[in-house]
Amino acid sequence: MSVQTTLLDFSMDPARLADESGQKAVFTQLETVLKEYVPNLILATDIKVDGGSLKLLTGKRGTTVFVRLFDRGLVTVNIEYYKEDSEEPLISFKCSKLLESSVRMSLECARLKLLPTLKRGYKYDVYLTSSDERLLEYDIDGVLFDEQSSFQKVQVVHSKSFGNMLVLDDLQNISEADLIYTETLMQRGKESYEGKEIVILGGGDGALLYELLKENPKYVWMLEIDELVMKACNKHLRTICGDVLERKKGPNFEIIVEDCMLTVKKFTSEQRKVDYVFGDLTDIPISDAGCSELWEFMINILRAAFDILKPTGKFMTHGNGATSPESLELYEQVLVKMKPAVTFSKCKAFVPSFLEDWIFYQIAFKQTEDE
Q1: Given the residues 280, 288, 357, 370, the one annotated as active site
Q2: Which terminus of the chain has fewer Cβ atoms in its 10 Å neighbourhood, N or C?
Q3: Which whole-number Å values give the CA distances from 280 to 3, 7, 193, 223, 234, in the listed order?
């Protein structure tokens, strides 16, 4: 069950829409075309508004059609109706393409675009966003887990393309198809973790811990605050985390369930140093200024991580999508200003369930010449 929304817009010579008579002529042509695709269509309301006019039509199955004519040469059409799962769509994909063609030919449009039907109020939320806040539609066909923790909304959904997928606060985090994310984060094949001590800040899905343990580390501490995330992933994402979230402790690893900063401060007070720290927490914020609460959190995480790193240690973290260069630049400005000085390298990988390239950072202390 969902409300089906079909959006169509087209441009034409503004002179054709410059006055009331021109708008009426264009609308009459458009109405004739629409009646071929929406049965029983009648004009219910005609409103004159600043810059043009608005028409409301109604039709079969409670369909509403809003036509907005702008005197600047733009027309938008919103077709909306309620559809039960068992019902055929009023306007199928094939029909929508025919509608698009009919409008183009009848009204001689300069530019025309019809968007795929949007499903609003659907039983599954199939719309998520890219890192730069563009709308992405997923082939989600089931919700396996949906609970609210003290920290965030935790969901595991099933995608036909990506398998089970962890979604936190309506943002995709990792799926069964995303091994490349974890391997790029840890720079598999480029970094050696054998015999090393490692701290993971966050990492509640267990994927990074699971893969690191395959590298024979001396010890790994995973510091995750949200036990509900681990519960969900342990049940529904075992293909990426194995049994580490269930075991919680082994001969060379331990999962500590608390604010990661508490454990880091404890390590600092004990003057304990490790070889690697992984930042597997929130993404770099999308912001035009590095002064928000999220930016302050990111900076505090960086400083705390370097407090427990050996002089030859590295801080490994994910950044954001490659389509968000402004936020990545702000992050790099933070790195350049860090004391003691650090150097960094970065790489990118296409993450399947993100549907975009993602940036990863490798950060280390800047070595002096005599070192």
Answers
A1: 280
A2: C
A3: 37, 39, 17, 10, 18
Angle at 180 between CA 176 and CA 181, to 5 degrees: 85
Is the backbone peptide bond immediately before 340 cis, with ω within 30 degrees of 0?
yes
Bridge partners of 364?
A: 314, 343
The verdict on pTM exceeding 0.70 is yes
For residue 295, give both structure tokens: 């930016």
Query: Residue 319: helix, strand or coil by DSSP?
Result: strand
Q: Which residues of the chain have pLDDT under 70?
A: 283-292, 369-371
Under a CB-based contact definition with an 8 Å cutoff, are residues 245 and 206 in contact?
Answer: yes
Amino acid at 298: M
Angle made by CA atoms 340, 321, 146, in degrees to the nearest 5: 105
What is the predicted pLDDT for the residue at 1?
83
| CA–CA separation, 304 and 261 (whole Å) | 8
Token digits of residue 93: 């994909």
Contact between 53 and 46 under an 8 Å Cβ cutoff? The reply is yes
- Burial environment of residue 358 by CB neighbours within 10 A (0 to 12, 13 to 18, 19 or more): buried
Which stretches does DSSP call E strand in 12-62? 42-49, 52-59
Looking up tokens 């030919």, which residue turns up?
105
Please say if 9 is a catalytic residue: no
Of 281, 315, 305, 273, residue with least CA distance to 187: 315
* Cα end-to-end span (Å), the chain: 66
Instruction: Tell me the three state secondary structure of residue 338.
Output: coil
Strand partners, 357: 350
Best CA proximity match to 1, nearest among 81, 89, 85, 118? 85
Is the separation of the CB atoms in 305 and 343 below 8 Å?
Answer: no
* Buried b / exposed e along 262-294 (16+ C-beta atoms within 10 A): ebbeebeeeeeebbbbbbbbebbbbeeebeeee
Q: What pLDDT is attached to residue 92? A: 87
